[in-house]
Amino acid sequence: MRVYVLDLGYLTAEKDGIVHHPGAEDHRRIPLPLPAFLIDHPDGKILYDTGCHPDAMNGWWQETMVKAYPFFQTPAQRLENQLALCGVKPEDISAVVLSHLHLDHTGGLSLFPGKPVYAPKKHLAHALQKVSHPDREQHSGYIRGDLSAPVDFCPVEKEFSLLPGVDLIDLPGHTEDLLGMVVRLAHTTLILPQDAVYTAENYGPPIVPTLSLGAPEQYAASVERVRRLERETGGLVVFGHDAGQFSSLKKAPQWYE
Ligand SMILES: [Zn+2]
Question: Which of 4, 38, 120, 199 is the most buried (most CB within 10 A)?
Answer without folding.
Answer: 120
